């Protein structure tokens, strides 16, 4: 069966920020934030019609500044947060803020990407609240509590991790607690991830070559993987099904998988990219599927069977099996389980800074390169059926 | 007519001479007497003729008639006269003959008469003699008859005499035995007793003999007791012992018991020998560790001397004096002692034992059939037990032999050990001892190979450490002299390169020498004059599996693996390994791949005449491994060097406030530093690697490429950015540009040449520059500064890379990205940039 061709969407501006709309579980929808110093920045809402292979987009204006990071609320489809650059008095400051999409965007502004005229009067995002961190420096990312009610966010600002409580329909943000990274030199968080396990009480952050785990109840460090990567750690992701497993990537071109109970050695290390790896994402459902994006302009989909929560394939209840499928199951279990690269996607021409799985369809993902090209790809069908059956 | 014939006859006769006539006369006489041998044929021819006057059938009538008929008268007359004449002569002849014969008759008659008288006398004498003889016979018979009685008597007397003498011997026996006992002439006593024993046994029913027998038994028991005592005492020599045993055997002692005793006695002595050997083993245990440490010190010392001495692996220099200075005996002495004391006494024991129990002629009631069988069985058990002890001692001693300095000593010791065991093999054909001994030798050889491998490995690591130190030493001096920019970080290669090729050649030469000397040492095991060298193990497995695989191949693999480890351990933080070492090792591995491995293996195969019965590692596989290691090292070198430069660029981008920077006056120092470092890396790599191919340059690359991102084209690239109406164009242009350029793999494997290495390093550095720029926001002067910097890099970096377009493209991208990230993109005039860059 032939795999569907990738779907490519071009933005007018350079872009780094990509997220799927976490709270949306029906439509395949990605949010992209642009980076432009000269024009009003935008948030593109990309809807993908899987059946017809058609992309439709909506554009919301983000006039506050160029977007470095974007994340969507897990509870409310209309709420999202951004980190953006604000230039004032020849100073560049990065701020975080929570925004709300105007309620009408969905009804009126659907348009085909081929029609440029409608994009001249896009609607503005509505500001809910600033994650005011002037005291704590530049925000590098804003993290929502996974699977939460959209009331708690963490922002990473320079060497601080700030836990915010959003109240009054998210219009009010107050710092409930904070942790500060202390040490020699100018320490700075480069990225972080809120663990979905342990009742969402853990946070992992990256600074320079180290990965640290934090307990949010006490705001204290619980582990630290020094020299996790030879160079800067660029991104982290938690295995959604195995609570101690963590993936990281960095400037040494490697992707490493850690069991945080044993931080001396990575469980697994991949070196498939030929330049810095900027983003790593576990598939939300099938954690053997790992997506990485790199500044060598490639996206690589790997099948890490050996360290996944389904090392023996998808577990099917006996009740569900008809006799015919029984045989099939036997056959499959004989196949050797090997970690492998499933596919390398080379549709990008520039560095890929973000990759993201769709929150609605586990077999679909998007990648965004600096030149503003968004590519939507699917997991090869052969593999999909192999995992499912 | 008759007359004619007669006339012819007569006519012929007269001229006949006398002898003829005489003969004719004789013939006739002979005829007469019947002696007609001669004339027979003639007679027969003529005899039938009746007319032949001389023939026997002569008929005078016929003859006369014939004459009358045939002859004339004259002729008849002649015939007649002739006849008369003949008759006359015949008569005279006859008279003469008669006369002669008459005399003879007379003398004969006289003689006969005389004889008759003599015979008569003789007959009388003979009669007298026969009567005398008869008398003598009669007398003789008479005498013999009278002597008969006396003769019988004498015979009887002599028989009695003999018996009496025997009896006397018997009666004297107890006394004699006692005396023998006193004099300790045991063998005499035993032989005497043996002679008497049967007789005594036979006549034991007679009281007197019984007494004697009892006495003898008592004495012999005593004697046996004494012999046993002597046997037990064990003070006596082996010869004495064997005599004892022989005597005891003759005294009907049970052979089995004797065997046991003999062996136990021998055992005690042999064990004493073994204890002596063991005593030599014990004391050095305390001083053992020091001698073990010694070889590890050796190679380091040797390497430093390597370039001058030429033979760094001289096995005698470090190991031996240390050993001999300690009080312990060396292994050769130990084995010697073991051979001379233990093995030779063992051989003696075996020989005398076999003489006594196994090979002795089976006689009398001793000859029970299974004695030799039983005896051999006991002997085997005995020898095996002792040999096991001996072997364990020898093995302990061999295990202590850890110094790899002088192999010949060990080989000679093993040879001696093995050789002496052959004597045992000859004496005791079925014994397992020699094969066990061979096994020990084989084990020792295996152990030796392992030790040599370990020594080679430690030598290699020590050599590397020395190289590291050599690399580090000049660098320290150099960086302090260079003014020590804080940006330098672990910058290397500024001063070290001068000695890089020398270090490489001395390193590889010393390793090769060490391998050769080890091979030479190991080769001793297979020397022709060594007894065990013709064992199948040493001919086959030792050479192929032992030397080739375990030693040489494993060492080469070790070199590759340890080289690879430098890449892995150094993966974090740019590495503790100096990049120059990586480069040097990479070249070393590459050299191994191209020639050294083949050389070493060929050398090994030739020296050891390896016949590969079992599969061995192919040269190609090893070469592949070495090449893999070389590639990995070089890749890692590129990565490390690229990282060092990247770090400089990154720091320089990250730490500056690009929005509020001042107008560029000159190229930033870090760019100069980048170019400097690149140049020194170029020099460093150039020392070890060939130039490599690059695409053709135009006559003035720096100028030409300079225009690529300046002038009109530069303007078209920036222009759309100002125009709000068409923001897409920038990307479009950039994408079109990328469509036609190949994708650049930044951290990609490099080729084994200078250009490729430098290209890799520059790619990494510039890509880092690009990514860092994209994370910043620039003011107008920030952009201009980047323009100046990139122009400067452009001027210098193109010469290092294989494809200058690569540099153009990346620098273009940097400036392009900077322009995008610029709040106020007002590019600097190209001419101004050039002026600044040329000012330096």
What is the name of the CATH architecture of chain A?
7 Propeller
Class from helix and strand fractions of chain B: mainly alpha
Measured distance between first and last alpha carbons of chain B: 184 Å
Cα distance spanning the termini of chain A: 16 Å
Question: Could you give the count of β-strands of chain A?
Answer: 29
- CATH level 4 superfamily of chain A: YVTN repeat-like/Quinoprotein amine dehydrogenase
Q: What's the number of domains of chain A?
A: 1
Organism (chain B): Hucho hucho
Subunit structure (chain B): Component of the Golgi-associated retrograde protein (GARP) complex. Component of the endosome-associated retrograde protein (EARP) complex.
Family (chain B): Belongs to the VPS51 family.
Subcellular location (chain B): Golgi apparatus, trans-Golgi network; Recycling endosome
How do the strands and helices of this protein lay out in sequence?
The complex is a heterodimer of chains A (389) and B (840).
Chain A: E1 7-10, E2 14-20, E3 28-35, E4 41-49, E5 54-62, E6 66-72, E7 79-88, E8 91-100, H1 105-108, E9 123-124, E10 126-131, E11 139-144, E12 152-157, E13 160-167, E14 172-180, E15 191-194, E16 202-207, E17 210-215, E18 220-225, E19 233-238, E20 245-250, E21 255-259, E22 268-270, E23 277-282, E24 289-294, E25 299-303, H2 323-334, E26 340-345, E27 352-357, E28 364-369, E29 373-378, H3 381-388
Parallel strand pairs in A: 5-9
Antiparallel strand pairs in A: 1-29, 2-3, 3-4, 4-5, 6-7, 7-8, 8-10, 11-12, 12-13, 13-14, 15-16, 16-17, 17-18, 19-20, 20-21, 21-22, 23-24, 24-25, 25-26, 27-28, 28-29
Chain B: H1 2-12, H2 18-33, H3 40-47, H4 60-70, H5 73-183, H6 186-202, H7 207-233, H8 238-250, H9 255-281, H10 284-309, H11 319-325, H12 331-358, H13 371-400, H14 407-427, H15 433-481, H16 500-523, H17 536-569, H18 579-608, H19 619-654, H20 669-688, H21 701-706, H22 711-722, H23 728-740, H24 754-774, H25 780-797, H26 804-820, H27 830-839
